[in-house]
Write a structure and sequence with these properties.
Blueprint lengths: L8 E9 L2 E11 L10 H13 L14 H18 L7 H4 L9 H6 L5
Length: 116
Amino acid sequence: MYCEPCITYDQVIKQRKENRRIAVIREAIWGEPTDEVISTSVVEGYNNKIRQRTSRFGRKTASFTKKIAAYVGALNMFQFMNNFIDAKKGTTPAMKEGVTDHVWTWREFLSYSIQL
């Protein structure tokens, strides 16, 4: 469960004139962020990481997918890798959130069985 007072939703509007940026407007949509923390760099970096590591999300690639289920599967694999396997400074986002206590391996992920 997320902490609602901790969530902020912000908007960055970049105004351009003749291919030059003339203004950057930062607006708080939800919550009370300061202007210094309103930025698109985290989202842009994450989107770039998806395009680099998952070829079907790149622009004009040879690995074109015809079915939406294949996109969903590829994105799920990327999300798992990013949250459980890709450790930065010895820890993963899943470890920081207390979902797991170790960095997973691909073997562990592919052989994991869910009991329903």
